[in-house]
Write a structure and sequence with these properties.
Two copies of one chain form a homodimer.
Chain A lengths: L1 H35 L2 H32 L3 H34 L7 H27 L2 H26 L7 H33 L3 H8 L1
Protein name (chains A, B): Phosphate-specific transport system accessory protein PhoU
Function (chains A, B): Plays a role in the regulation of phosphate uptake.
Organism (chains A, B): Actinoallomurus iriomotensis
Chain lengths: ~220, ~220
């Protein structure tokens, strides 16, 4: 009985990793759609999001069923609640990729990103992709060290996010209001995506070590 | 023993209602700070947010302690998990009020909102306040009918949000890029605030009826 239960816990973890795979693919395609004004990619991201949502619902149902049936305690209970939280974060990350794809679609056939910001947005997309890939590895491997790395990626995302604003608010900006509105929001979507990836990794770190990442950081100082 | 447990559940509900009170006050002050360029109010919102965060941590600790100690099942367990989710939503709503306050502070002594958008942003602030007030009442009273009302408020918020964009993208817009960047983000913060209020109400509806609001809607059609 107990073993079947732990198999079901593993199944949850597999589903979470599958969510990270789908979200990574959505983010990769959304970033490209945004930069290259690729309508087909944008539509793919938008329609694929239902798979992410479906996995979240699956995970929720499994968690409630396991709770009702097994009445888990202590660390098992915590693992279930953490799975709920992580699936919520991953579902949001899927939504944020969809928001980027919709921006690309709205501006098609133009690109929402002016040439001088291409490199910055490209890098934001790459960091976002790297972070969700790492979050997936952290869930699968429970690698605390990798989990702690996401903070540095998040700092880098914040720096690039500030660079977007500096560029829009510089006297050299010559693209007017509409691209500025799109880029303000797109920047925010990337930044929130990174925040959610950090949350996922933090949840794993807490689950494995019983410590919040900031406390581990303090010990390591 | 069982009674003491239910008293602790009530205590959780009181803390959630207290969170809604603090968040409502933060939103009211943040909206005013934004419209009137009131630096003192903005600073108040920013420094008061730690109380909201503290309550979230309190609720989390109580939930985990109750889970460990009482091993609740079925509806009691669901009530605890829902409390965790609601406190997460309310904490985010506090953050969004802080983001609005920081926008006000950054643009001080100017107002971040040009005169022709004052009425729209004022109304967005009022709807946000009304929604968090209703969410608090719904938690306290478990009033399902009121819980279902928040969807209509959310639709109204979305309409006002679109009005902001229409105004910024109209040929009549004469404020340039910087206010447009601020307003794009502020609009997003109001809209997300409303989404979180809807989530809180939905969680209560689900807890009371065992049904998701969209299914109740279908039955009522």
């Amino acid at each position: 009985m107990r073993d079947a239960y732990h198999e079901e816990l593993d199944g949850l973890s597999d589903k979470l990793v599958e969510m990270t795979r789908l979200v990574r693919s959505a983010m990769a395609r959304a970033s490209t759609a945004l930069l290259d004004a690729d309508l087909r990619l944008a539509e793919e991201v938008i329609s694929a999001d239902e798979h992410v949502n479906k996995l979240e619902t699956d995970i929720e149902e499994t968690v409630f069923e396991l709770m009702a049936r097994q009445q888990p305690v202590a660390s098992d209970l915590r693992a279930l609640i953490t799975s709920l939280r992580m699936s919520g974060d991953l579902e949001r990350m899927g939504d944020l990729a969809v928001h980027l794809a919709k921006t690309a679609r709205r501006r098609h056939p133009e690109s929402a990103i002016p040439p001088e910001l291409h490199a910055t947005v490209l890098e934001m997309g790459q960091i976002a992709e790297r972070m969700i890939a790492k979050a997936g590895s952290v869930i699968a491997s429970q690698d605390v060290q990798m989990g702690l790395e996401l903070d540095a990626d998040d700092d880098q995302m914040d720096r690039l996010h500030r660079r977007l604003f500096d560029s829009m608010l510089s006297p050299k900006w010559r693209h007017g209001v509409e691209p500025a509105v799109d880029i303000s929001l797109a920047g925010r979507y990337f930044e929130r995506f990174a925040d959610h990836a950090v949350h996922v990794a933090e949840d794993v770190v807490y689950l494995v070590t019983g410590q919040h990442p900031e406390d581990i950081g303090e010990v390591a100082d």
